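quick q for whoever's on today - can somebody do inverse folding on this one?? i tried earlier but teh output was garbage lol. tokens:
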């Protein structure tokens, strides 16, 4: 077992009102199975402040699902890292595949956002992952390498000290299809090797979460892999029982 603290994150996406989110964190905060995991949930920007208040003093941290790279200005509809922080966020997810697919996110915009998030002292979770066509076409390593290099361009190992990476094969997100434990371990080890090539010792500290249809029944095996340091959970994070079981598996 590595010395890295496992990190279980629940991405609520466009689900749960403030009230529903409060009820969920209250259920999760109840003393449950012992787990050494760090835990965070990611409500909508609108629900974040209320959920952060409800989670205060518990083991559950709260984060944003996205942010803009500028702190303020004429950017209709956006929220900044500093506003997320003021609302109680400690983390921000960046470059989720749904943002890349539906909202024009690129490695360059992830890089700008990552710089802004780190400048605010927030913990970034940078999402990377390949499509099925890329995997089948033998492009897995090329894609992961490009995404890691693109996201971290111009940043130093010191700046990236808290970096978390989520490896999420796109074909496994919300599909009920999970990467095999070997596929996950191989991809994570490759990502770590890329971080090592770029930033040396940071590679031993960076936590790499697996994401893609993580459920109570597959979490334990995935989390037992030496380079899998936690999970980014979508669907199963919306139910206290399922998310609690995944936390317990860590
Ligand atoms: C995700 O959205 O990051 C995700 C992994 O979703 P799901 O667990 O539903 O596949």
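ok took a stab at it. sequence:
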């Amino acid at each position: 077992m590595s010395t890295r603290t496992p990190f279980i994150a629940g991405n609520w996406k466009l689900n749960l009102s403030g009230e529903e989110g409060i009820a969920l964190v209250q259920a999760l905060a109840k003393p449950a199975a012992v787990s050494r995991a760090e835990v965070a949930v990611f409500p909508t920007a609108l629900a974040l402040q209320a959920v952060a208040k409800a989670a205060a003093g518990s083991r559950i941290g709260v984060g944003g699902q996205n942010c803009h790279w500028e702190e303020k200005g004429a950017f209709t509809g956006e929220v900044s890292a500093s506003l997320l922080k003021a609302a109680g966020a400690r983390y921000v997810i960046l470059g989720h595949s749904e943002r890349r697919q539906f909202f024009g996110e690129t490695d360059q915009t992830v890089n700008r956002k990552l710089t802004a998030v780190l400048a605010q002292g927030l913990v970034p979770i940078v999402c990377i992952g390949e499509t099925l066509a890329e995997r089948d076409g033998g492009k897995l390593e090329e894609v992961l390498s490009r995404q890691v290099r693109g996201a971290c361009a111009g940043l130093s190992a010191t700046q990236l000290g808290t970096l978390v990476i989520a490896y999420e094969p796109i074909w496994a997100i919300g599909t009920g299809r999970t990467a095999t434990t070997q596929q996950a371990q191989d991809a994570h080890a490759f990502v770590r090797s890329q971080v090592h090539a770029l930033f040396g010792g940071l590679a031993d500290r960076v936590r790499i979460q697996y994401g893609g249809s993580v459920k109570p029944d597959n979490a334990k095996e995935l989390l037992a892999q030496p380079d899998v340091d936690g999970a980014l959970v979508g669907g199963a994070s919306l139910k206290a029982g399922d998310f609690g079981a995944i936390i317990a598996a860590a």
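fwiw The two ends are 11 Å apart (CA to CA). also The first helix runs from residue 18 to 29. so keep that in mind when u check it
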